[in-house]
């Protein structure tokens, strides 16, 4: 008896750390499979996900492909919920961005069933199945569903999105007042959450890398149309947006407006800035 125990101990001692980790991983994988099976069996219905996969740093995963995941559906489930389930239960290497889960941070913009959408706002029950999930088009893919947003942020910064009033209030604690009418005029433009969905949907932005894009032009509208904006700053801002790759590149396709998750009338704002630019350059003498 003691000899058997000693032999078992020696065998365990001979295991390498890698072997131990493999055994633990195998055990966890088995538990995970059982949990997934239980979840799928207890669900009223299941949904098939077809998820874009790409990882340039891992051998064998450099070529883009689609992986299938079957997830248990529950009422109120969003695309983001389904992705989180697939990541946590099937493949922990599945990569995508998300943060607030309340359609505020804009980090989980995806291409779902052929349209730009926010993962946390899109209900699985409203989509045709299987649900095909891809990264935003016209953006460089970093890994799986994550795209490089640096160019988008550069375009947003190009319109200098900050106030520069001519005069500040006299009192140290006095606020810069705005009429209710002017607030209503710019209110919708302030809803932008920098998700990049509009830029991804824009055919002009896809073919012209220097085009400011609907999100940046909307940001310019937000400040240019604010009555608290300084007159000199407004002139500078109009010069930025009326350049060759500014508002005049827009072809009024309304694709940006259609995909905006915050219902901002982006195309209308671009047209308003076109009119403002013309008026600014009219001279009567």
Structure report:
There is one protein chain. By secondary structure, the chain is of the alpha+beta class. The chain folds into two domains: 127 residues, Roll (Ubiquitin-like (UB roll)), CATH 3.10.20; 132 residues, Alpha-helical ferredoxin (Fumarate Reductase Iron-sulfur Protein, Chain B, domain 2). Helix content is 42%, strand content 12%. The protein is built from eleven helices and seven strands. Strands 2-1-5-3-4 form a five-stranded mixed beta sheet. The protein has a two-stranded antiparallel sheet with strand order 6-7. Helix 4 runs parallel beside helix 8, helix 8 runs antiparallel to helix 9 and helix 8 crosses helix 11. The relative contact order is 0.10. About 3% of the residues have low confidence.
